[in-house]
Fold this protein.
Amino acid sequence: MVLYLGGPLASPRLTTIELVPSVIYFRDNEDPFGASRLEQDPLYKLEAHLTHNFNQALWASIDGFYQGGGETTTDGISDDNSQRSINLGASVGLNLSRTWSVQFSYGQTVSDSRDGLDGEMYRLKFLTYF
């Protein structure tokens, strides 16, 4: 889901708010190692970005990611391992030409449960469009 603010898509000053919700469902494992049945609750995710174009070549965003749920049950007994984590970061992109761009992103976990995501992320991407 995207909300466009400040003009048409081609605007060099466009700001967007993007939300990407998702749910991952798991099938029961009828033959897990050391048990007779393993079940897992759905895992809920929400990815969000506030992006702004500074001109036709340069853009930046503030990024967020939430993940929660996913607790497992082994042979009918709760494993007490529900996940919850919140990650924040930022990205910057530079369009080098009509067909090439480079992007750099950084992200870090700011809150997590014992079984949630944890850590830092650095990413450098080179993209080409055909």
In short: The radius of gyration is 20 Å.
